[in-house]
Every structure is written in C-alpha cells, then in structure tokens.
Amino acid sequence: MKVHTTALILISMLILAACGAPPATPSLPGEAGGGVAPVLTPEGVGPRAVSFVTEDGVALGGTLYGSGSTAVIFSHMFPTDQTSWTAVAQELAGRGYMALTYDFRGYGASEGEKNVSRIDRDLRAAVAFVREQGATDLVLVGASMGGTATAKVSAAENPVAVIIISAPVSFRGLTVSDDEVRAITAPKLFIGSEQDAATRDTLHMFDVAPEPKEKHVYPGSGHGTFIFDSQYGDDLMQRIVRFVETNVR
Fold this sequence. Notes:
Blueprint lengths: L1 H17 L29 E6 L5 E7 L4 E6 L10 H9 L3 E5 L16 H14 L4 E7 L1 H13 L3 E5 L4 E2 L2 E2 L2 H5 L5 E6 L5 H10 L4 E6 L14 H15 L2
Parallel strand pairs: 3-4, 3-5, 5-6, 6-9, 9-10
Antiparallel strand pairs: 1-2, 2-4, 7-8
C-alpha cells in the first residue's frame, strides 16, 4: 500500500507541474507562511532628531520629517516648543515635503538660555541647515514670537511662501520693521483670532506687506498654535497645507 500511495503522490505532482501550477510563495525572512511583502517606509524620510549650531554658537535641537527639494520650517511660540507643530509637519512630509520643527534656544532639545531678542539667529541657522540637506525652496511658518522671527528672516532669505500666525510686531527685544515686512515678496498668509491681542499687529503686517497676500481671522481668542486645540484646528491645518501646496511650484 505504501508503494501505491507514493506512486499516486508522484503522479499528482507531475500532473500539477504539467498544468503550470505556480510554485509555493517563499517566505520572507522572519515571516511565517509567506505572503505579500510588507510596504517599507523609504529610508531617511521618517522623523529623525537633528541638531545644528547658530552663528553665535548655540546648539539647537530639532526634528526633520520627510524629504524633498522644498523645506517647510516651523517656528514655535513663547510658551510652547517644537512639538506644537508635529501634526502639520507630519502631514506635509506625507505630501512630499521636507519639514523641520526645532526648539528656540533655551527650549526643549536646544541648549543656551532663553533670549527672544536673538531667536531670529536660530531661524537663520534652521534655514542654513535645510539647505545643507538639499532644500532649494523654503516655506517659513511661525506662530507668535516665531511669527515675528519668521517675518524678520523672510525679508532676507527669499522663501517661496510665508505663513505668520498671531505675531506681534515687537516682543521682548525682537522687532520686525515695516521695511522688513515690505521686503517679503513671496506669497504671504496672515492668521489671527478676533479677540487675541496679537491680531492687531498681525493685521498691521498684512496691511504693510506687498501683494500677493491673504489673511484669515478666526472667531474667539485662540492664539498661535493653540488654535489647533480649538474647534478651528482642522481648518487651520487644512489652510496651512493648502497655502503651501498652492504656492510651491
């Protein structure tokens, strides 16, 4: 009986081979039972910790998301740190942009003492860093004091788009002049909230700035990236993403 059984098995295998039955799918290393290969994230595009040094020798910490020839740099506001931008940075990285969040001096992962009057140097160091990573176009985004720094640095760095949220004209020794705002030739989006005291200054920048420019004022008193935590958070996210994608060529 064993001989007949073995013969039947061999005959069955020959028939299957003759009919073109596909070979068994080999298993991937460490994968039981074979199957479809997993989708892998391209190397180097996941969030990774980075560091760079300012012109006055302060080491700053940041997080780099995604990759691409256009870098979007996010500058945080006074009571927060780079993590306030995480969600929107991830969203833009998923759309093919390089996105950088970073901590101003004295905040989060960065060294040094807090000194608002010098944070424009921190943003300039961030700009130099993304250019070293291969970025050829810049989008600068900032909230509150980060928005003031963004306006000041945009005047000299020639970004392709600028977004300024709830930014004062002057804060703790950091000041952006009307002439600097007038020097920003890129498309600009100014955002504020009706009952936020900083909105008056943000809208002054809008009035002074040359075309092309846009503004949007939300109801309520949400300030800077705190708007993400309000009922207008989704709208703010979409508005930022849409403005970037509309103005990056």
